[in-house]
């Protein structure tokens, strides 16, 4: 048999024809509270999902307990709230964690969540060395794109290295961090930037681990083997295939040349994927289903560069958070691709293609140039501090916006063929979107109160004191954190103790010094409006742009800030994670003509209410108009407008100059009365 | 919508009590550039100077300059927190200036993202201002706003754009100027050696997060100051005018704050207000009549050239001569 092997077939070790096992199917899930999420996970597992991907709510990600005032509007909105080990016990109720591959999307408080997971296993009597999964824990991309960082870069790197050190010795199948290029693409990164910045992040982490000198040579090699990645796949799927092949080759080269890893299996580029959400449209949202399929091809077609795990967004993500049915529909795409098609029967179908080879080497060369540039300026942490990477991303994003607005980049149903029949999918009784049950937050708060009541306060105090001491003393913080978890310390308490030692960090915003290269009729028209305004009122229109709440996805706010300057506004850019009170104060001190806030976490109703309450308190309610941008479900429009929001901009408003023009009209109407 | 005299008096009353919005609106009034703005500004300044008691109305104006990236905003934020904490009656206004775009004229004013100041605290007021394409690192209206703020606050801290001839301009606005630099900022030392840069009243080497680097920078700065015989304030030893700070590690902030308190309490530390006013009046004349000249050129010289078919391509000297003719014709009519 073996002498007649065919090039187009796959054979196993004994020479028999075989086919690949599919990747791990995941659905990023979690919402409302631990009970609802537990039910959802068990449902998904029953449907054939083979791994868990835990979505946590923003307070948990940013290190606040649910009863913190800043947490209230966000409880259970974009994920499940976790306050203590008691919550974790419910979340994983009847789920055998020793058999699960669990991916936790957590960064600023990654160490805390891993400690909870280990503590849960220990309390259940499970052998912790059997635990497998991933904590996302890539802080560099948080500073660049996602915004749920807490501590300064050096201290964050230390926590990451602590987790690698602990994991390698105690939970060898755990990926202590998962280096993300996913969010970089969502923030506008080009394929070259994605390759370069993700690999720089990996190098930064490995350099830090090496500097600690806590592993033998053999252990370090295994540790390199634990580095895994989380990648994005866009609609240009041929280029994405090439990007993935470039990733694999570059990682093999870097681990060999920079770190001397001898065993090829520790040089493998292991990665999971969530395909692109940025390109999904709110217009004709049913088209997104096809986009998701095509994006999936980019990370599955090439066997050599195939993903290990895949999660797909839902067709209606640009409208709101997906419902269980929407997620099920996406899971079906994966199942059809893996089990109905012949994809898994072949060796790599691109081997020997000159076209692919040439494209890959081109991407690699450009990415290496960029990597060397960043390493020369001092590495990933320095390129966060000096704003280099952030500015590069904001620049790419504003170029993308300009291409969309000019029609140079076609998006079907958005800037081309936008006329069409209405989709029956969005005409369901609930408008085709998922609403979080507002009352469910109370259950979370009650459970937290119950935990606080039942625990031993002296033990809590002692554990927190040890955590603080270890943090000051440079001791690995995993043991102290696991002890905290068992003593029922809360998420907010753990984070506050470390905030007290490390402080809180605010990275560069990347918007300053940006130029928008956009020349169009709409630019001329809005600048004319601005000039008329200046002539009439004797000053340039002023806008404050900021993000209230804990949601750190700042792309939208950054783009509006850059676009407003391009239109001729004086823009006060205030960044992310602001309270309603801070935004109102900035608007008053700067005497702005309009307030622009951006919200994507689904907590707009609560936060807008807080904002108007504060405007009221300051006697400025009707004097300064407020506009809102973000992913806002249409059923919420009337309520928001009744509160006083003048206009709601969504991803449908993709020409930034038309947005600015409307903003000018709102300002004029408000000034003239 | 012109604001009437009574409204102005009311605004000033509220602004004197450090109410944020009335003060902000008052600032907008003095920043405004319309025909009736001068008259209104005059009203405001008169009401202000008529207030009692007058001895409280002499805030110390501190200009903070230095290249972008030197950490001016975070440093100011830390110093303000120390000043507020030292004295429960202390009031501070921060005026942060950012560059305007040459292309659109708009500006991104992002200094707020780097400030961690208390919220709803009447003792501290923060305002952003665009440079409006003024090359001096401050805006054309900065002086007017400073005139207002120094009558209402103990300290007025101006953060300049940090590029261009900031040091020259900011001296004409402030009583004391600080040049913030990063450790071992070689470029700035080169500037000092060449004697190009106007001399600040004090140096701050910021981002001294690490001791060895900080000491090295201090020695480098001191030796280059000695080398060039730069006359700092001769009454004080040079080392008292070089501050080593780290906003991140909260290092050296107390010393810098104490330095400012000392200056604030010393009435002799105020620069001559009349001389500053004169400087700014001259600057205003230069700019205003420079703009007037451009209008004359555009309206009376360019059309002339086009009509006799020579167009803008005719010789530079010919255009210059025609401009002088046009101006003289206008001036003789006066």
What key attributes describe this structure?
heterodimer, A: 673 residues, alpha/beta, Rossmann fold, five-stranded parallel beta sheet, 11% strand, B: 334 residues, seven-stranded parallel beta sheet, 47% helix, 12% strand
Q: How would you characterize the overall build of this protein?
A:
The complex is a heterodimer of chains A (673) and B (334). Chain A has 673 residues and is of the alpha/beta class. Chain A has two domains: 2-14 and 23-386 and 421-427, TIM Barrel (Alpha-Beta Barrel); 521-672, 3-Layer(aba) Sandwich (Rossmann fold). Chain A is 49% helix and 11% strand. Chain A has 25 helices and 17 strands. Chain A has a five-stranded parallel beta sheet. Chain A is globular. The termini of chain A are far apart. Chain B has 334 residues and is an alpha/beta fold. Chain B folds into three domains: 1-51; 55-271, P-loop containing nucleotide triphosphate hydrolases (Rossmann fold, 3-Layer(aba) Sandwich); 277-333. In chain B, 47% of the residues lie in helices and 12% in strands. Chain B has eleven helices and eight strands. Chain B has helices at 5-16, 20-31, 37-49, 72-86, 142-149, 166-171, 186-194, 211-227, 253-265, 273-307, 316-333, and strands spanning 60-65, 92-98, 107-109, 124-130, 155-159, 176-181, 202-205, 242-244. In chain B, strands 4-2-5-1-6-7-8 form a seven-stranded parallel beta sheet, with helices on both faces. In chain B, α8 (211-227) links the parallel β7 (202-205) and β8 (242-244). In chain B, α1 packs across α3 (37-49). The mean pLDDT of chain B is 83. β14 of chain A pairs parallel with β3 of chain B.
């Amino acid at each position: 048999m073996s002498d007649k092997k065919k090039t187009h077939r796959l054979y196993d070790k004994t020479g028999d024809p075989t086919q690949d096992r599919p990747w791990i199917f995941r659905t990023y899930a979690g919402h409302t509270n631990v009970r609802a999420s537990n039910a959802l996970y068990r449902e998904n597992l029953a449907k054939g999902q083979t791994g868990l991907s835990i979505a946590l709510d923003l307070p948990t990600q940013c290190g606040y307990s649910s009863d913190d005032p800043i947490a209230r509007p966000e409880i259970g909105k974009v994920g499940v709230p976790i306050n203590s080990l008691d919550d974790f016990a419910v979340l994983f109720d009847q789920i055998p964690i020793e058999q699960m591959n669990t991916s936790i999307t957590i960064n600023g408080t990654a160490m805390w969540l891993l400690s909870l997971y280990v503590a849960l296993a220990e309390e259940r009597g499970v052998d912790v060395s059997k635990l497998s999964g991933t904590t996302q824990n890539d802080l560099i991309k948080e500073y660049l794109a996602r915004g749920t960082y807490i501590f300064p870069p050096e201290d964050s790197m230390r926590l990451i290295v602590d987790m690698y050190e602990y994991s390698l010795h105690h939970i060898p199948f755990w990926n202590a961090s998962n280096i993300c290029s996913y969010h970089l693409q969502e923030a506008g990164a080009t394929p070259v930037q994605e390759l370069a910045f993700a690999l720089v992040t990996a190098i930064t982490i490995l350099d830090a681990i090496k500097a600690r000198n806590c592993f033998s040579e053999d252990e370090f090699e295994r540790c390199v083997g634990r580095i895994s990645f989380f990648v994005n796949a866009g609609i240009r799927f041929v280029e994405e295939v090439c990007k993935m092949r470039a990733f694999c080759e570059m990682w093999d080269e870097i681990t060999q040349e920079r770190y001397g890893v001898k065993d090829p299996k520790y040089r493998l580029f292991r990665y999971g994927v969530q395909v692109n959400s940025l390109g999904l449209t709110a217009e004709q949202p049913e088209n997104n289903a096809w986009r998701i399929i095509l994006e999936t091809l980019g990370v599955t077609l090439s066997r050599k560069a195939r993903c290990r795990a895949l999660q797909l967004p839902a067709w209606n993500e640009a409208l709101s958070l997906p419902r269980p049915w929407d997620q099920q529909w996406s899971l079906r795409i994966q199942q059809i691709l893996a089990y109905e098609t012949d994809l898994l029967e072949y060796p790599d179908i691109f081997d020997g293609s000159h076209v692919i080879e040439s494209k890959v080497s081109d991407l690699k060369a450009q990415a290496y140039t960029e990597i060397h540039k960043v390493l020369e300026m001092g590495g990933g942490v320095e390129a966060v501090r000096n704003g280099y990477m952030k500015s590069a991303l904001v620049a790419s994003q504003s170029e993308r916006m300009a291409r969309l607005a000019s029609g140079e980049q076609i998006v079907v149903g958005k800037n081309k063929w936008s006329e069409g029949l209405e989709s029956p999918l969005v005409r369901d009784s609930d408008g085709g979107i998922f609403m979080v049950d507002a009352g469910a937050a109370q259950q979370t708060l009650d459970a937290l109160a119950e935990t606080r009541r039942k625990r031993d306060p002296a033990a809590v105090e002692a554990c927190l004191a040890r955590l603080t001491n270890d943090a000051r003393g440079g001791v690995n913080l995993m043991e102290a954190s696991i002890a905290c978890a068992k003593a029922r310390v809360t998420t907010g308490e753990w984070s506050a103790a470390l905030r007290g030692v490390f402080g809180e960090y605010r990275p560069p915003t990347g918007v300053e010094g940006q130029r928008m290269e956009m020349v169009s009729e709409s630019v001329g028209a809005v600048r004319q409006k601005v000039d008329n305004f200046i002539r009439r009122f004797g000053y340039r229109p002023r806008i404050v742009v900021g993000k209230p709440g804990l949601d750190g996805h700042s792309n939208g706010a950054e783009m509006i800030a850059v676009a407003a300057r391009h239109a001729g506004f004086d823009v006060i850019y205030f960044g992310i994670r602001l309270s309603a009170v801070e935004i109102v104060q900035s608007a008053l001190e700067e005497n702005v003509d309009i307030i622009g806030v951006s919200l994507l976490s689904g907590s707009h109703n609560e936060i807008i209410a807080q904002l108007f309450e504060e405007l009221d308190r300051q006697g400025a309610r009707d004097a300064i108009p407020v506009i809102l941008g973000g992913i806002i479900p249409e059923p919420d429009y009337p309520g928001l407008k009744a509160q006083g929001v003048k206009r709601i901009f969504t991803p449908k408003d993709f020409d930034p100059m038309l947005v600015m023009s409307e903003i000018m009209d709102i300002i004029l109407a408000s000034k003239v009365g | 919508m012109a604001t009437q005299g009574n409204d102005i008096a009311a605004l000033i009353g509220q602004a004197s009590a450090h109410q944020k919005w009335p003060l902000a609106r008052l600032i907008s009034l003095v920043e405004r550039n319309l025909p009736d703005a001068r008259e209104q500004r005059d009203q405001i300044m008169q009401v202000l100077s008529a207030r009692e008691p007058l001895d409280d109305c002499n805030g110390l104006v501190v200009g903070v300059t230095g290249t972008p990236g030197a950490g001016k905003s975070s440093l100011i934020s830390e110093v303000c927190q120390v000043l507020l904490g030292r004295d429960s009656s202390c009031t501070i206004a921060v005026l942060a200036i950012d560059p305007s775009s040459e292309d659109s004229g708009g500006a991104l004013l992002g200094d707020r993202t780097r400030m961690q100041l208390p919220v709803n605290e009447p003792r501290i007021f923060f305002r952003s201002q665009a440079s409006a394409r003024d090359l001096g690192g401050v805006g054309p209206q900065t002086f007017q706003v400073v005139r207002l703020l120094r009558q209402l606050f103990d300290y007025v801290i101006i953060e300049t754009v940090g590029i261009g001839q900031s040091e020259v301009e900011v001296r004409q606005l402030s009583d004391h100027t600080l040049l913030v630099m990063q450790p071992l900022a070689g470029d700035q030392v080169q500037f000092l050696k060449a004697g190009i840069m106007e001399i600040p009243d004090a140096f701050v080497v910021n981002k001294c997060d690490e001791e060895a680097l900080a000491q090295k920078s201090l020695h480098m700065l001191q030796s280059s100051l000695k080398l060039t015989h730069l006359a700092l304030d001769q009454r004080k030893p040079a080392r008292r005018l070089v501050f080593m700070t780290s906003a991140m590690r909260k290092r050296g902030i107390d010393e810098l704050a104490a330095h400012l308190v000392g200056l604030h309490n010393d009435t002799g530390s105020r620069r001559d207000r009349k001389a500053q006013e004169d400087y700014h009046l001259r600057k205003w004349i230069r700019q205003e009549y420079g703009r007037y000249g451009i209008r004359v050129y555009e309206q009376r010289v360019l059309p002339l050239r086009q009509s006799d078919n020579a167009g803008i391509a005719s010789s530079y000297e010919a255009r210059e001569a025609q401009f002088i003719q046009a101006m003289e014709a206008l001036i003789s009519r006066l």
